[in-house]
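4.2 Preliminary Data

To establish feasibility before requesting continued support, the project team ran the inverse folding procedure on a target of 507 residues. The structure was first converted into the token representation described in Section 3, and no sequence information of any kind was made available to the design step. The complete token record follows.
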């Protein structure tokens, strides 16, 4: 019997929809699939101790990301309760909790959106195995990306190593299959199909019950949940055409700020592309440039899929493992605490600690500064960002760091070294961003602000800045550091850098 003439399978009585990094109830592939297949659905979330316990063991008791998750779940629970249901929230190991709940409720299937990270894939295999033992199906759906990893390969059926050909292939695939790839995964029948739950059913556990402190609040401008995502997206749509010209300036509101929503799935990436792609085709340079950034996200996800060793901090280009990094607690502390004496670097690093946010340009500048000015291993920076970024995503963070350190797919050439002062003059010319994060330098005039050590004693006095007391002297000299970096990286190709390389070194 052909697939098309096969009679529709009988509906299942109950399906669980296991939410993970897809915290919304609309345009949701797993929820849509469950609604197609089951008479009743029950959404569930697990505070997974396999993820949380290692944080507690490292002494991390406050994490803004948990607050973002908790607030997003509260929004979902509230929406479900309006229709006589509720979110089931569990705390424990997912491979035990999900099958136990499915058995207890008599669910015949569990639906989830595929998470492509190596640990998540292993977790899902364990859950699927447990469920299979109980005769319960596990359905993994594609939702997180427009093009799932593995779906875009080159003519030799091999994954792309370079971004531009990947993006061209990605766009060509979109042209051919936009209707299906971008179609809304309709979940509008959810209110009528929810499993009924008594109104008195327990709600979400407080974070303290999970062993965590309650962080005071999310940073200004970040609202959790689909509501927060919708507001941020609507505001950004009005600025989309200006994206290409504004995106590199941290003091402007030039980027979307949607990465945390993409990370936790409080919006659907299809929805973004449904808008950006036609706008790009109509000639909006801003939309085309922004769409490219969404493709970078998918590019790095497929890099992680094809090269899972990057999740263990291994260089994609093995020859870069030969680089000998310096070790210095003092330099590490200066970088991570924002006390290097380079204002743009320090402003960005302090904002990260204060709010969990950092502009893309500044991720490149601070990342380059760590490995190419301080000579410290980029993996230290990768782990620091993983700890603090609100939008931390394994694939994008690893891809970004390997780009900065020149050891990944389509990385910047190793002989290019960002000049932190030039970057500061170019992308924060009036110093508005620096002033917003470093009040001790706020009174310095714009010319002196980018390199305070070069300011005259009168300029410093007039601004009330005592270098070495109110604000540090630079911990390294950039010109010397760059020369050392060129020597350090020369081992990659087994010879000292030529004069041509050195000339190109200043970006
Ligand atoms: C060292 C380093 C580490 C990074 N770590 C992360 C991370 O952990 N999580 C993360 O989401 N992004 C990471 N990025 C990429 C980028 O900095 C952020 O996605 C971006 O700053 C988020 O701001 P936005 O939402 O306003 O982006 P926009 O400029 O509005 O871009 C739209 C979306 O495209 C995606 N995107 C944009 N730039 C990139 C990029 N270079 N690589 C991959 N995706 C991109 C993001 O999902 C973003 O939300 C990193 C970049 C570097 C250089």
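Position-by-position output of the design step:
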């Amino acid at each position: 019997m052909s697939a098309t003439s096969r009679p529709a399978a009988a509906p299942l009585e109950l399906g669980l929809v296991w939410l993970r990094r897809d915290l919304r109830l609309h345009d949701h592939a797993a929820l849509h699939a469950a609604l197609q297949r089951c008479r009743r659905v029950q959404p569930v979330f697990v505070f997974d101790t396999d993820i949380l316990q290692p944080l507690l063991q490292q002494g991390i008791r406050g994490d803004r990301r948990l607050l973002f998750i908790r607030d997003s779940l509260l929004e979902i629970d509230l929406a479900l309760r309006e229709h006589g249901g509720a979110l089931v929230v569990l705390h424990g190991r997912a491979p035990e909790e999900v099958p136990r709940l499915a058995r207890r409720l008599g669910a015949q299937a569990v639906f989830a959106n595929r998470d492509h990270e190596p640990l998540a894939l292993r977790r899902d295999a364990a859950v699927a195995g447990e469920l299979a033992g109980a005769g319960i199906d596990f359905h993994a759906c594609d939702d997180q990306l427009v093009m799932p990893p593995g779906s875009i390969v080159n003519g030799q059926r091999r994954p792309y190593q370079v971004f531009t050909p990947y993006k061209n292939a990605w766009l060509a695939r979109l042209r051919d299959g936009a209707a299906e790839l971008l179609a809304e995964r309709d979940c509008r029948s959810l209110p009528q199909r929810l499993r009924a739950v008594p109104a008195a059913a327990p709600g979400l556990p407080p974070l303290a019950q999970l062993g965590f402190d309650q962080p005071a609040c999310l940073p200004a401008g970040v609202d959790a949940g689909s509501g927060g995502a919708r507001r941020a997206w609507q505001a950004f749509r009005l600025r989309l055409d200006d994206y290409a010209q504004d995106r590199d300036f941290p003091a402007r509101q030039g980027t979307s700020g949607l990465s945390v929503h993409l990370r936790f799935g409080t919006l659907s990436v299809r929805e973004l592309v449904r808008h950006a792609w036609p706008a790009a085709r109509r000639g909006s340079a801003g939309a085309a440039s922004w769409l490219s950034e969404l493709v970078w996200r998918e590019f790095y996800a497929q890099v992680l899929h094809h090269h899972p060793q990057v999740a263990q901090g291994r260089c994609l280009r093995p020859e870069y493992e030969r680089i000998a990094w310096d070790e210095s607690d003092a330099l590490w502390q200066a970088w991570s605490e924002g006390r290097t004496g380079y204002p743009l670097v320090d402003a960005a690093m302090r904002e990260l600690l204060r709010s969990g946010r950092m502009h893309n340009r500044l991720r490149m500048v601070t990342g380059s500064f760590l490995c190419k000015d301080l000579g410290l291993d980029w993996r230290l920076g990768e782990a620091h960002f993983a700890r603090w970024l609100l939008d931390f995503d394994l694939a994008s963070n690893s891809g970004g760091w390997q780009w900065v350190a020149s050891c990944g797919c389509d990385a910047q050439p190793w002989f290019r070294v960002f000049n932190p002062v030039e970057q500061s003059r170019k992308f924060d010319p009036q110093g508005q961003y620096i002033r917003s994060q470093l009040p001790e330098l706020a009174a310095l005039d714009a010319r002196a602000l980018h390199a305070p050590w070069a300011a005259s004693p009168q300029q410093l006095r007039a601004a009330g800045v005592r270098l070495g007391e109110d604000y540090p002297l630079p911990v390294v000299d950039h010109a010397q550091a760059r020369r050392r970096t060129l020597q350090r990286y020369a081992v990659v190709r087994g010879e000292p850098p030529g004069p041509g390389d050195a000339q190109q070194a200043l970006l």
